[in-house]
Write a structure and sequence with these properties.
It is a single chain. By secondary structure, the protein is mainly α. The chain has 22 helices and no strands. Helix 3 packs parallel to helix 5, helix 9 packs across helix 12 and helix 11 packs antiparallel against helix 12. It starts with a helix and ends with a helix.
Length: about 500
Amino acid sequence: MKADIIDEKIREKYKLLISKNLSVIVFIPFLVTIGLFLPHILYKLAPYLVTFSQSSFIVWGGGVGTIVMALVVILRKDEIAAIIVIAVRILLDWYLHTFVLGLLAALVLLLIFFLGKSEHYPWAEPRALWLWMVFLVLVLLAGIRGILTAYEIFSYYNNFTLGAFIMFCLGTTIGRSVSNVHHFFKLLAAFGTLIAIHAIIQAITGVFLFWSPSNDSYYASLSNFVLLPGLDVHRIGSFLLNPDWSGPFFAVILFIALGLFFASKNMLEKLICFTEFCLSLIALIYTYTYGAIIGACAGLVVIVIFIGNSRHRIQILLMLTLLGLVITVFLASQLNLLQQRFAPADASVRVGAWQTAIRIIEVYPLTGIGLGLNNYEMRAEAYRVPAQYMPLDHPLNSYLELAAEGGIPVAFVFVVLLALALWFTLINWLRADRQTRALLGGCIAGIAVLSIDSLTNNIWTNPPLAALGWLILGVTSSRLLSQSIKRSSVGDVDRN
């Protein structure tokens, strides 16, 4: 009896401790933002203080970020930790070119989750683990043949192959219950909306907040992404730098926000999700990216199918009709510029890039020419068709890129991995309740955006987008989520 009383007191003290830390948890997103952007803040203040090197800014930001991550891990806020990882992958590894900090953080998290596994924090191996091993070995062999620079070792091979596997494993662990999955995607939608707000500010004011001079040469080489010659209008890339990459990112976020809208029961949450959806849609328009917009249109068809409720389908159609009218009135100039942007020469070089890749595949069907951007640009010259009137370091198609560089077996295994992850996501969708179905439907639509846009550009082979896509697939296809859905279903039957 005394033991039960003592146990109850311990539980009450534990609940009190958690409640006292709620204020800390609320300020974690703020601390993360400060930690990630501290290097840029110091850069702006440097002329008035002392001169710092950019590496010093990264060290400062990394130090604060490490402290925040340690606090999050101690409190076992695993979903927040995963969002920090994806933020580091975009803001530091990609935007500031640190390459591997996000992957290292993800590996440390996986080690902590494995060592700290328990009944409340279970561990599960990712789906199709053996096939992942086959894929990594095949790509490693292709990488040995093709990688010519240290940059490609850290930023190309690791990030969209080994890095994809690491993010998939992290997602598998994060998706341990229905509530965790809902919480994770709420945080992801909020983070993506912050990037969308940054992009909208850039589009309206012409000011890139927290600009890094390390990207000056990249922007200059692409004419600062001027939409049309003679016009002072620029396509918006935000922290993903290139509009062709920021476009699909915003498209994924808007579908996650739309799924959360129908998964939420609270009106305030619905209002927040609808706002996130609208901001992401506006940011997508400002990228003027045809591939992402085509992918988003296909995503709309997917979410109408997988939203899981006829009433929701009608609401989506009404919502889109209303938004279409609003966009036509208030963003008419942007839509007009989008139509003007189409250039036959751009379509010609894209088709030519595909034809060049197909010629390479015909010559090297099993091995490819080797993995690597510089390697592809150099070795593809011998097979370049006239329609591709300039050298390219990838064939503007992720699937052809994998087949041309790694061989048909690499591309085939990649597509099978993608299909299996979607299949297990679909199984979870079939077994889930109405709210979870709506959320998973939004996630499936987001993956459809990445997969379709990969036909027009290097999307699945782009490091931050690959990290985002495989993290989402890891969460939605998780074995732990399947078990949680089964327990919820049994509980519902017992109550009935």
